[in-house]
Amino acid sequence: MSTTQYGRGGGTDEEALPNGPAAAAILAAGIGCGAVGVLSFAGDASDSIGRMLNIYNPTGTLSGVTTVAIIVWLVAWLVLHRMWRTRAIAMGGINVAAFTLLLVGFLLTFPPFMDLLQGK
Fold first, then answer.
1. Nearest Cα to 80, choosing from 21, 4, 9?
2. What is the pLDDT of residue 17?
3. CB 31 within 8 A of CB 76
4. Does 63 reside within a domain?
5. Which end of the chain is more exposed for a tag (fewer CB within 10 A), N or C?
6. How confident is the model at residue 43 (pLDDT cuts 50, 70, 90)?
7. What is the pTM of this model?
8. Which band of pLDDT confidence, cut at 50, 70 and 90, is reported for residue 119?
9. What is the domain count for the chain?
10. 87 neighbors 3 (Cβ within 8 angstroms)
11. 62: which residues sit within 8 A by CB, 6+ positions away?
C-alpha cells in the first residue's frame, strides 16, 4: 500500500498525520472476516479439515474456525500495526481490500453459496 501526504497546506512528510494504526485495524478486521469464511468453507468441504477444526464437540468445527480466525486477526493486526504505526497510509486501497475480504467471509459462510461451490 502506498503512503500519502496529509496535513495542512500540503506540508511535508514530517507533518503527515499517521493513520497507519487505524489502517492496520481496518485491514486486519477484513483479514479476520476472510479467514472465518475460508475456514468455514474448508471445514465443511473436507472431512479431515473439519476434524482438525473440531476443538469442542458440542459446537463442532465452528469452535476451531472461530479460534483460528481470531488468532489470524490478532496476528495480522499486530504485524500491520508494527509496520504502519508511524506512517500515513492511503485508505482507499485498504478499505477496498477490507470490504472485499468481508464479502468473501460473508459469502463463504452463506449456506446456499457454500453448497453451490461444493456442487451440492
1. 21
2. 81
3. yes
4. yes
5. C
6. very high
7. 0.84
8. confident
9. 1
10. yes
11. 40
